[in-house]
Design a protein that fits this description.
The chain has helices spanning 8-16, 22-40, 48-65, 106-114, 156-163, 180-186, 220-231, 234-253, 262-279, 288-308, 320-323, 329-344, 348-359, 364-371, 375-392; strands at 43-46, 75-79, 117-122, 169-174, 189-190, 212-217. With 399 residues, the protein is α/β, with parallel strands linked by helices. α4 (106-114) links the parallel β2 (75-79) and β3. The longest helix is centred in the C-terminal third of the chain and has 21 residues, at 288-308. The radius of gyration is 24 Å and the shape is elongated.
Length: 399
């Protein structure tokens, strides 16, 4: 069925050698889509003209500068829970039929920067949950090996489109088998990455602590290429975690009377950072406010443990009102973005004072020594910073 369509690795080698044009490859995929899509319903939205235009632009760029990497000029598509700027993202649901995001999901952006060319948005089970539904604006995807059968889900459209040769790879998500199922039933490859390895920022959630974003393609090699683009540099993140460990240990041990519990709290905090990282952009520095959220959650867990044991754990968290987690991850992302913007706009002296005196929880003497500011100047700068944040965030930033 897919003899005329190369794998991503094969296409990359041919494009680099200029024996295959991105335009030719795109036309082959669009030809397959025209032949098979009416029976398969793999796409919710297919924009052939935009894909052709992007393929022509990629060809001109590659001829001029060479390929960006193995994904440059590769036909691709996204499961319709990945937000795409200016393009409806519906989760295959009538509820979001007219939902048009303002920005791309982080992984969508990374893949675009790597050079993939999106043909459109792919079918899924509604909100990536349950099974195929027949009362939605778009019919469920079918298995290209036998259209009377289903391709599994919830990444059903991705599995069907890859297996039919309409695209060389696509995005999926896996909460309880939604990458692995379509890969198995459609005879292709898929990978459910380690939790947090690929960002979930901009991907409509099903279960925040169980959702994984990852690729589907014809071969394991192709999935590895896609995973590398989606996930970024894991080594940089590992270095950040190692740098964060002494800070977390110092913070947690200052707040726990029983030393035997401190290492458990540190591990809880690290787990929370992993979870938060999955909702934010990966390979970014772990800011003090992010570590504060992690520490707060670890401490809350210890408090609950203490109550079960019939005792209270006297802990005083730092930066509590600035770092308190929002009711849900979506609100948390919004509040974190607002806080980052507000802190970034503070004058340098106020920003330094806020970080040292509030978020890193140093004494005034320690903060003064670190900043080179006098204690009096530090107090004034901290007060002004908190006042500015309160005004900017509508009273949400406390002392």
């Amino acid at each position: 069925m897919t003899a005329a369509i190369p794998t991503i690795a094969e296409a990359a080698r041919q494009i680099a050698a200029r024996s295959l044009s991105p335009v030719e490859l795109m036309e082959a995929c669009l030809g397959r889509a025209a032949a098979h899509e009416p029976a398969l319903n793999a796409f919710i939205r297919l924009d052939a003209e935009a894909a052709r235009a992007a393929a022509r632009a990629a060809e001109a760029r590659i001829m001029r500068d060479g390929p960006r990497g193995p994904l440059d000029g590769i036909p691709f598509a996204h499961k319709d829970i990945y937000e795409t700027a200016g393009i409806p993202t519906t989760a295959h649901s009538r509820v979001l039929e007219h939902h048009v995001p303002a920005a791309d999901a982080f992984t969508v952006r990374r893949l675009a920067e790597a050079g993939v060319i999106s043909l459109g948005k792919l079918a899924t089970h509604e909100f990536a949950f349950g099974g195929p539904s027949f009362d939605l604006p778009w019919p469920p995807a079918r298995n290209p090996w036998n259209p009377d059968h289903m391709p599994a889900g919830s990444s059903s459209g991705t599995g069907a489109a890859v297996a039919a040769g309409m695209i060389l790879g696509g995005t999926g998500s896996d909460t309880g088998g939604s990458i692995r199922g379509p890969a198995a039933l459609c005879g292709i490859a898929g990978i459910k990455p380690t939790y947090g390895r690929c960002s979930r920022a901009g991907v409509l959630p099903l279960a925040q602590t169980l959702d994984h974003t990852g690729p589907l393609a014809w071969t394991v090699e192709d999935c590895a290429i896609l995973l590398g683009a989606m996930a970024g540099d894991a080594r940089a993140y590992d270095r950040l975690l190692r740098a964060c460990l002494p800070f977390l240990r110092a913070v947690v041990r200052r707040r726990i009377l029983d030393p035997s519990e401190s290492e458990d709290a540190v591990q809880d905090a690290l787990l929370t950072i992993h979870q938060l990282r999955a909702a934010y952009e990966p390979a970014r520095p772990i800011r003090p406010w992010l570590a504060a959220i992690a520490e707060r959650r670890a401490i809350d867990r210890l408090r609950r443990h203490g109550r079960r044991q019939g005792r209270e754990t006297p802990i005083e968290t730092f930066g509590e009102t600035l770092a308190a987690p929002a009711a849900n991850m979506a609100e948390q992302r919004l509040e974190a973005a607002r806080l980052r913007e507000a802190v970034a706009e503070l004058p340098p002296a106020q920003r330094t004072a806020l970080v040292l005196a509030k978020l890193e929880d140093l004494s005034l003497a320690e903060a003064s020594a670190r900043s080179g500011m006098s204690v009096g100047a530090l107090k004034v700068a901290t007060h002004r910073a908190v006042k500015a944040l309160r005004k900017r965030l509508g009273g949400g930033a406390g002392d």
